[in-house]
Specification:
Shape: rod-shaped
Length: 238
């Protein structure tokens, strides 16, 4: 199962799409404003690349997030100014990667640091204005990645706590099933012994044995339905 299926199963893929969509719209508007001040082919191409990276991040979260960072570093090396709002997409990508995996979250901090180093080493005034302090952006990338990791770990703890609680309830239900069926089966055995010794008639014993067996069967069915209704979607407690 891919990242999209895993996120959908946990009810989070919708929010990934929403955040990616917001980044795309903001970058598109910012890019249009940038082109209105000084339209050029380079700015147009870079704007298209930024939009494509945002779409890729929404469709394929893991690969798309790295594509967003790659566009950031490529735009930093280019003399063509790119929308300052694109840094928002990078922060979202860092948070996404942090939620997808702890190692990915740690690795997502690297592009932010590289971005800060490149802006510190290269002194092109064309892309300086409006892009903020490089060190502050690197720090924000780290914070976003840590936030994603923290959210993932918190959700895992909550899921594990719910599973343990469900397992405890299922164990109690199984014990009740054992008690009910054991009593019914013992009564059936005692009735057959009385039947063998002639203490009761066949008709009477048969009716009681049938009632006891029916009771045991109903208890079993009730418990099975209870256990099936308490299973999580992924069947982890089965």
């Amino acid at each position: 199962m891919g990242d999209e299926g895993w996120l959908s199963r946990h009810g989070l893929y919708f929010w990934f799409l929403v955040i990616s969509g917001v980044c795309l719209v903001v970058n598109l508007v910012d890019g249009m404003v940038l082109m209105s001040h000084g339209p050029s082919v380079g700015i147009g191409v870079l704007l298209v690349v930024c939009v494509v990276a945002d779409l890729w991040m929404a469709v394929r979260p893991r690969i798309g997030c790295w594509a967003v960072f790659l566009v950031l570093l490529a735009g930093t090396l280019s003399p063509v100014p790119f929308p300052a709002s694109y840094l928002l997409s990078c922060l979202a990508a860092a948070g996404f990667l942090g939620y997808l995996g702890t190692v990915l979250g740690v690795a997502a901090c690297v592009p932010g640091v590289l971005y800060a180093v490149l802006l510190a080493v290269l002194h092109h005034q064309e892309y300086r204005p409006g892009q903020g302090t490089p060190l502050s952006f690197a720090l924000l990338c780290v914070i976003a990645a840590l936030a994603g990791i923290s959210l993932r770990l918190t959700r895992q703890r909550d899921t594990e706590r719910i599973r343990r609680a469900a397992a405890g309830r299922n164990a109690q239900t199984a014990r009740r099933l054992h008690d009910y069926t054991t009593n019914d089966l013992c009564s059936i055995i005692m009735m057959t012994d009385r039947l063998e010794h002639g203490e009761v008639g066949v008709g009477q014993a048969g009716g009681q044995i049938r009632d006891l067996a029916t009771s045991a069967l109903e208890h079993t069915r009730t418990v099975i339905r209870t256990l099936e209704s308490s299973l999580p979607d992924d069947g982890g407690a089965r």
